[in-house]
Design a protein that fits this description.
The protein has 230 residues and is of the alpha+beta class. The protein contains eight helices and twelve strands. Strand 4 and strand 5 (69-76) form a beta hairpin.
Length: 230
């Protein structure tokens, strides 16, 4: 299956929206496409720093390993990218990236991506902007560390919905992230996540469509209010 056109690529990936058409064409010409099934490791610990990866479809999670367990640090979906920090940092890593669903990725080698950054100042600037946005999200999670579990979970769902939610009918559809991963992201226990989600479903704020692995958020305003965002 051929890659998408350059103009479509710019529309799908916020990182590339400020890049010149020549830059996008060049990246497209040197990119490699990958298809992974669910639960397959996309990037292993020792492979960080080799390339930058763009998500064409599907969902991945970034995990940190600690002894015999793992903690989900981030969940990324269509239009996002990862690996940009590793190409600048050669220190050993204890994280990997795993496909949560079937995933289509586009990769660009570290050397070629760095060459492109030096040539296109707008792409460089846009990358810095997105990295700052991610840092602010991390800071927000840190500020919420002493908040009640329900506030933490609402803030997590709201942030993911704002980044990846698809408006549908009377609400917004979002990938139904497994409870353990959602709990890790919100820094609460899986038991707390299950209890709070059951209450949100009971209130009618969220409808679970397990057949499609979708959460339908019917009241995003109330969720944002609970998260302290309004």
């Amino acid at each position: 299956m051929p890659f998408m056109q350059a103009d479509t690529l710019s529309e799908q990936y916020p990182l590339l929206q400020g890049a010149s058409p020549e830059t996008v064409e060049w990246l497209l010409s040197v990119a490699t496409r990958h298809d992974y099934p669910a639960n397959r490791a996309v990037v292993m610990e020792d492979a960080w720093g080799n390339a930058v990866y763009f998500i064409e479809s599907g969902w991945v999670k970034v995990r940190r390993h600690a002894e015999d367990s793992s903690i989900t640090l981030a969940v990324l979906g269509r239009g996002d990218f990862f690996g940009e920090m590793a190409i600048l940092d050669e220190s050993p890593r204890s994280t990997d990236v795993v496909a949560m669903t079937a995933v289509k990725l586009m990769s660009i080698s570290a050397q070629r991506f760095l060459q492109t950054l030096f040539k296109d100042s707008q792409l460089h600037h846009r990358l810095l902007q997105i990295m700052v946005q991610r840092l602010r999200q991390t800071n927000l999670r840190f500020q919420l560390r002493h908040q009640p579990p329900a506030v933490k979970l609402a803030a997590t769902i709201t942030a993911i919905q704002e980044a990846y939610g698809e408006p549908v009918g009377d609400g917004v559809d979002l990938f139904n992230i497994p409870r353990k991963d959602l709990a890790d992201l919100a820094d609460i226990t899986p038991e707390e996540a299950n209890k709070i989600m059951a209450k949100l479903v009971e209130k009618g704020w969220i409808v679970e469509d397990n057949a499609r692995s979708v959460l339908h958020l019917k009241n995003t305003r109330q969720l944002a209010h609970l998260a302290g965002r309004l």
